[in-house]
Amino acid sequence: MSKSRIRLVVLATACSSIAFPSNAHFMLDAPAATNEQSSPGRPVLDAPCGDEGAVKTGALTPFTAGETIDVTITETIFHPGHYRVAIANGSANELPQDPIVTPIGDNLCGTAEIQDPPVFPVLADGALAHTSAFAGPQTLQVTLPDDLVCERCTLQVIEFIGSHAAPCFHHHC
After folding, report:
1. Is the dihedral of CA 122, 147, 144, 173 positive or negative?
2. Highest mean pLDDT range out of 8-22, 25-39, 41-55, 142-156?
3. Which of 17, 75, 104, 158 has the highest local Cβ count within 10 Å?
4. Strand extents, DSSP E, the chain
5. pLDDT digits over 132-162, tens only?
6. Is 94 helix (H, G, I), strand (E, B) or coil?
7. ∠ CA 135-46-93, rounded to 5°
8. pTM (2 decimals)?
9. Does residue 92 sit in helix, strand or coil?
10. Where residue 44 falls among pLDDT bands split at 50, 70, 90?
């Protein structure tokens, strides 16, 4: 049986640590982004993709249904937390809502709900959990569903940033 080819639209942005009080905390290195990113990047606060004001590159990355792909990020500003990867069969508007956050004491970003095991459209959740800064780029692998057929899927990577004032997530697609 031949697998259907998928063209995955990856829209990624980050935010500048100089211009905004809450900043880009990671950049999406792979798959190729369809929004320009600067270091540390552009605003990424608004769900689902944080691409407010972003310049589009038009990059598309082809994948095959059932393929395991590498998602590589570079954390530019450390916060303890973890990452989630989800996919929409079309528009970014089809991506799931951000996970539910439970404050702990005065920490508004105490903990975030993690799907374990993840349920489609979430492909990975609680990934790259960390309490200290990464030494460099980090890669996680996700497997696309065998039955995923779409011309322009949207892959979303979000970072839950614990020990932080709200908002508690940064978004890339």
Report:
1. negative
2. 142-156
3. 158
4. 5-9, 26-30, 60-64, 68-75, 81-88, 101-104, 107-112, 122-130, 138-143, 153-161, 169-172
5. 999 999 999 999 999 998 888 889 999 999 9
6. helix
7. 110
8. 0.84
9. helix
10. low
4, burial (CB in 10 Å: exposed 0-12, middle 13-18, buried 19+): middle
Which backbone phi and psi does 92 adopt, to 5 degrees? -60, -25
Structure token pair of residue 26: 């990671």
Residue closest to 123 by CA, chosen among 96, 150, 102, 149: 96
68-75 β-sheet, strand order? 26-30, 68-75, 138-143
Joined together, the tokens standing for residue 113 give 């709900």
Amino acid making up residue 173: C
